[in-house]
Amino acid sequence: QVLLTESGGGLVQAGGSLKLSCAASGRTFSSYAMAWFRQTPGKGREFVAGISAGDVERIYAPALEGRFSISRDSTKNTLYLQMNSLEPEDTAVYYCAGRYRYAAEMEAASYPYWGQGTQVTVAS
């Protein structure tokens, strides 16, 4: 089992950047595929980006690739999401998620472990 805690959300102006962090407990973080999702009121969780165990492969939601970048530092048990050129439409609660598998998946149901979320608000 892994416990996940996000941080780094906040209020930013359109065009700005934010870097989210997700701290993971446990000694096997590098063995987990990890992902970022986001959710707005009344909608399901939307896949943002994923990274395989061992940081071999990264996948992105096509509409976000180029502006968002996922990374991990297994020495710090931390997952990151760098978000650039933010738009008001990026406003959401952002969640990190983990699964004890090699590959990241785009389906939220594939992840048994979730953080509590961090709010990102982009002002126009």
Explain what this protein looks like in three dimensions:
By secondary structure, the protein is mostly beta strands. 0% of the residues lie in helices and 48% in strands. Strands 2, 4, 5, 6, 9, 10 and 11 form a seven-stranded mixed sheet that branches. The chain starts with a strand and ends with a strand. The mean pLDDT is 96.
Q: Helix and strand layout, with pairings?
A:
Layout: E1 4-7, E2 10-13, E3 18-24, E4 33-39, E5 46-51, E6 58-60, E7 68-73, E8 78-83, E9 92-99, E10 113-114, E11 118-123
Parallel strand pairs: 2-11
Antiparallel strand pairs: 1-3, 3-8, 4-5, 4-9, 5-6, 7-8, 9-10, 9-11
The fraction of residues in strands falls at over 45%
Q: Specify the helix fraction band.
A: under 10%
Which H/E pattern describes the elements? Answer: EEEEEEEEEEE
Distance between the termini: 40 Å
Structural class determined from secondary elements:
mainly beta
What is the number of helices? 0
List low-pLDDT spans: none
Shape: globular
Which properties best describe this structure?
124 residues; mainly beta; four-stranded antiparallel β-sheet; 11 strands; 48% strand
Summarize the structure.
This protein is mainly beta and 124 residues long. Helices cover 0% and strands 48% of the residues. The chain is globular and about 40 Å long.
